[in-house]
Amino acid sequence: QDYFTDENRALKKDPQQDYHLEYAMENSTHTILAFSRELHTCDTNDKSITESTVRVIWAYHHKDMGEAGQNYHGSNRGTKSLRLLNPEREEVLSASLPYFDLTNKDVPVPDKDTTYWCQMFKIPVQHEKHHVTKVEPLIQKGHENLVHHILLYQCSSNLNDSVLDYGHECYHPNMPDSFLTCETVIFAWAIGGEGFTYPPHVGLSIGTAADPLFVLMEVHYDNPSYTEGLMDNSGLRLIYTPILRKYDAGVIEAGLWVSLFHNIPPGMPEFVSEGHCTLECLEEALGAERPAGIQVFAVLLHAHLAGRAIRMRHFHNGEEQKLLAYDDEFDFNFQEFQYLKEERTILPGDNLITECHYSTVDRIRMTWV
What we know:
Blueprint: E1 3-5, E2 11-13, E3 20-26, E4 31-36, E5 54-59, E6 77-82, E7 99-103, E8 107-109, E9 114-122, E10 130-138, E11 147-154, E12 167-169, E13 184-190, E14 196-197, E15 202-206, E16 214-222, E17 230-232, E18 235-241, E19 247-248, E20 263-264, E21 271-277, H1 279-286, E22 294-299, E23 307-316, E24 319-320, E25 325-327, E26 338-346, E27 351-358, E28 367-368
Parallel strand pairs: 15-19
Antiparallel strand pairs: 1-2, 3-4, 5-6, 7-18, 8-17, 9-12, 9-16, 10-14, 10-15, 10-18, 11-13, 11-16, 20-28, 21-27, 22-26, 23-24, 23-25, 23-27
């Protein structure tokens, strides 16, 4: 039935029943309920379902409801963040496709809040073009909350194999000079996300002279409890195919650059920052190389603990288009690619604005981003 809760967390039956049971089954181990509901019910007791993240809460008691009403669930409860309207990816991959892993080897994670660790790798596929069709996170068991995000950067092809011998803390004064040649992001993964599958007509090109030979993997470790003695072996698995696809994939980064000029005051229930990818920037970036524009097929919205909502706005000829992507219920621990239902063309001379909404009501100090 359709119930709602009041401010005292008491369950009340909703006079407007918007929950429709499709089927139910039960055996000795499982109870399965399938139900449907309108996305927007015009009922003040219901939450509209949008493309934003939804916190689904579940609870159960091992006995059926009695005459006195529902039994208290006790510890049989939980929550999960989902994007209910995110279209599913159709798996067109063969289980026999080759792959290679880029993984850290016993990285000592310092007993401090945040660490960025960088390690150089060499792409093993060379001399012939292939397409990466899927990238999967390989997170060490038990470290699901420690590894916050992983970025893969393309580096200069003029480097030699000596750069593979060491990892180092990123953005550190003693960081190797070779790391400075790694500026272009070619893949990103963040906490809570599954593997990323490219559309059937798109792949990440590897193996040619123009493709990355050396890549830098940046892993962000989040250790707020300052746990000592952690060693990590997480990374990424890249699945590839010799059967080429029509288009090569790339990454466009838009948003607020990490700098001391970007700060958020404490005690703010709502604070908005905007990152502008200006028409001059996109004209320069796309004008000569991609005059017909680029096609966006997926978006990864990324923020940290103060983040509450993110909106990716798109302007063409000075007029705002439909939002490229948004999440008005952002969950730091659930950062998953949003696959667009229809690809969006970004043209030279367009504008992109990344709108980030923060809340710092529980903070007493300035937040430096």
